[in-house]
Amino acid sequence: MPTPAARPSVLFVCVHNAGRSQMAAAFLTHLAGDRVEVRSAGSAPADTVNPAVVEALSEVGIDISAEVPKVLTVEAVQASDVVITMGCGDTCPVFPGKRYLDWQLPDPAGQGVEAVRPIRDEIEQRISTLIEEIAPAVRH
Question: How far apart are CA 53 and CA 20, in angstroms?
Fold first, then answer.
């Protein structure tokens, strides 16, 4: 069992921290458990998480109804091993020694749950792949 300090940390960033980054953080927490430290933030956070995103995740047994969009800080980036951006453009600070990924995903803002489901499913697939790369399960 890795020590907490050995856990990789991942930061998901989008503009509003109300949709894509919230879904990604929720899936990583749900699927990797305590093997990964998870953060999410937005360069211009919204007041609330997108209700269609909350509904789409609840359909797969993940409750993010208590989550609140958070502002992106330099400290959050510095404390993360992997930074995954989702349409935040040039507003994400870049530091040497970090792994950066940019996931091109449709923005669920203003969309109904029907439009959010395929985004949710793609994020879940990408998260599963990411976990295998950074924190594979110990096989016996």
Answer: 8
- What's the mean pLDDT in 46-75? 97
Rounded distance, CA 115 to CA 106, Å?
9
pLDDT band at 1 (very low <50, low <70, confident <90, very high): very low
Helices (H) and strands (E) in the chain, counts: 4, 4
Q: Which residue has the tokens 């890795």?
A: 2
| Cα of 75 vs its chain's centroid, Å | 17
Task: Give phi and psi for 9, each to the nearest 5.
Answer: -120, 140
Single-letter code of the amino acid located at 17: N
The distance in angstroms from the start CA to the end CA of the chain is 12
> Which residues are the active-site residues?
14, 88, 92
From residue 14, give the alpha-carbon distance in Å to each of 35, 45, 49, 59: 23, 9, 12, 23
CA distance 99 to 82: 5
Mean pLDDT for the stretch of residues 93-121? 92
State residue 137's pLDDT score. 78
- Gap between the Cα atoms of 2 and 105, Å rounded: 32
